[in-house]
């Protein structure tokens, strides 16, 4: 029982860590591409900014779903009988 709880806690930490790393890499790449595109075509900056914020929300939503799954495993553990 203790081994299962320990492994679930480790898995929750890995889920949150990988999700945070993926979200930060995704947002940093998107921000860099936004700066490149706005420097190339400054007249499209408002449209690009809107698209950037929508994509940032989607990237953060994927991370928050991973956190919710980790919380599910931490507090309502389906592996413990």
UniProtKB/TrEMBL annotation:
SUPFAM superfamilies, sorted: F1F0 ATP synthase subunit C
Write out the transmembrane intervals.
6-31, 52-76
Membrane topology value: Multi-pass membrane protein
Q: What is this protein called?
A: ATP synthase subunit c
Q: Where in the cell is it found?
A: Cell membrane
Q: Where is this site: Reversibly protonated during proton transport?
A: 60
Q: Which domain of life is it from?
A: Bacteria
Q: Which GO terms describe its molecular function?
A: lipid binding; proton-transporting ATP synthase activity, rotational mechanism
Q: Does the keyword Membrane apply?
A: yes
Q: Which InterPro entries match?
A: ATP_synth_csu_bac/chlpt, ATP_synth_F0_csu, ATP_synth_F0_csu_DDCD_BS, ATP_synth_F0_csu_sf, ATPase_proteolipid_c-like_dom, F/V-ATP_Csub_sf
Residue ranges of every copy of the V-ATPase proteolipid subunit C-like domain listed in the record: 10-73
Origin species: Serpentinimonas maccroryi
* Gene Ontology CC terms: plasma membrane; proton-transporting ATP synthase complex; proton-transporting two-sector ATPase complex, proton-transporting domain
Described purpose of this protein according to its UniProt entry: Key component of the F(0) channel; it plays a direct role in translocation across the membrane. A homomeric c-ring of between 10-14 subunits forms the central stalk rotor element with the F(1) delta and epsilon subunits.
